[in-house]
Amino acid sequence: MTIHLFFITITIERRKPRKRSIEEERFARAAEEELLDRKCSVHQRVF
């Protein structure tokens, strides 16, 4: 009787956040907050 073993090792490396991606994320958050502020101000005027 023979046993055949086959192993696969997967290594996942986390990339360090680049300066550009951090700036893009900040810009996206600022845009979302601005949009939310506009929605809230319009909603308050209606009621």
What does this entry look like structurally?
The protein is 60% helix and 0% strand. It is built from one helix and no strands. The radius of gyration is 25 Å and the shape is elongated. The N and C termini lie far apart (80 Å). InterPro entries: YrzI.
Concise overview:
Pfam families: Bac_small_YrzI (PF09501). The chain is mainly α. It has one helix at residues 19-46.
Strand content: under 5%
Structural class: mainly alpha
Q: Counting H and I runs of at least 4 residues, what is the number of helices?
A: 1
Number of strands: 0
String of helices and strands = H
In round numbers, the mean pLDDT is 79
Report the C-alpha radius of gyration, rounded: 25 Å
Low-confidence stretches: none
General form: elongated
Largest sheet: none
CA distance, first residue to last residue: 80 Å
**Helical amount:** 55-70%
Protein name: YrzI family small protein
Organism: Geobacillus thermodenitrificans
Strands, helices and their partners?
Blueprint: H1 19-46
InterPro entries: YrzI
Protein name: YrzI family small protein
Organism: Geobacillus thermodenitrificans
List keywords for this structure.
single chain; 47 residues; mainly alpha; 60% helix; 0% strand; elongated
